[in-house]
Amino acid sequence: MVTLKVIFWICLAIVVYTYVGYGVLLYLLLCVKRLLCKPQKEPVLPNDNQLPDVTLMICAYNEEDIIGEKMENIRQIDYPADRFCIMWVTDGSNDRSNELLKEYPEVTLVYSPERRGKAAAMQHGLRENKAEYVVFTDANTMLNTNAIREIIRQFMKPNVSCVSGEKRVIARVNGQVAAEGEGLYWKYESTLKRWDSELYSAMGAAGELFAVRMSHYRPAPSNALLDDFMMSMLIVRDGHRIAYTSEAYAMEYGSADMHEESKRKRRIAAGGLQSIWWLRSLMNPFKHPMVSFLFVSHRVLRWSITPFALVALIPLNIALALMNAGTVYTVIGILQALFYAATLTGWLQARTGHKSKLFYIPYYFMFMNVNVFRGINYLSTHHQSGAWEKAKRG
Questions:
Q1: Torsional sign, CA 135, 139, 369, 117
Q2: What is the model's pTM?
Q3: Which of 90, 197, 243, 368 could tie 154 with a disulfide, CB 3.0–4.6 Å?
């Protein structure tokens, strides 16, 4: 019984720390830093004629339906045209994408007839790039007009070689569980990223909007499932920082439904496991003391150990309750039962198109964790290919 108790409490501690404790600890550490360290002033951008050259790169596969809207959005971005290159990299597209893009004289089009995946498309585009700063964004995300200026401002901070913008997920209609669950998750995730960045460095960037300094760029493996995350974390491994800013943001509709959202989540989970292995040296606290703390707490646990600990709590709790190990195990068992009842209710509501935060929050939470297990299977069948399966949005 003693062994079961120890395992139970270890599993519970891992789950609570990953989803609640880390955020609390991170906030407390930030409070201490704010008390001890003098706040740094935000850098002031130079005049337009002194701003650096920037390439905005969009890697795309069969995006003919969104090109018009995306280009209209790009034309509204406030940055000097003579210092701003718009590059589209079409990776094996066989629709009208290339034909449509040729209608825009300001676009530099890079085309590969073979579909090799996003990481390979990025590397192809970067071989044609001339600018020191490259901003990556997706075809289906819309940027705020000041995004590029804010990103360049972040590069003016000490030791910053990568900048992550904020991802904002919106639902096309009320009650869209996939979109609203994803949006709620990203609000929490954005808070953690902002705190990570303030303490030392954000732990990775999302492909919707991030930028790199090319003199410190390291290519992600061509079969990387999370090319954006790998590219940004290789910069951290070299001793540089990722700055996070909510003043540069990318907006996109959430997944059309939970089936489409599952495509994303299992690929992200698979890419997370792949990245953990490739970046395992960052978990060495003697070599990377601050990075190892942030990386393990924010990424490694969530993508590997915690989902197993969450599942293990169920049989462990049942066994300890049946063995009359103590009232506390009965109470925790009841709380678990209520949580999973709420999860089941959220799942049923999602199938019927209804929505209640009381139920879709636990449902989406379990949905994310279940897809870690699906990601293990995905990784075993896709580890040699970086080609991505598009999820339908909105």
A1: negative
A2: 0.88
A3: 243
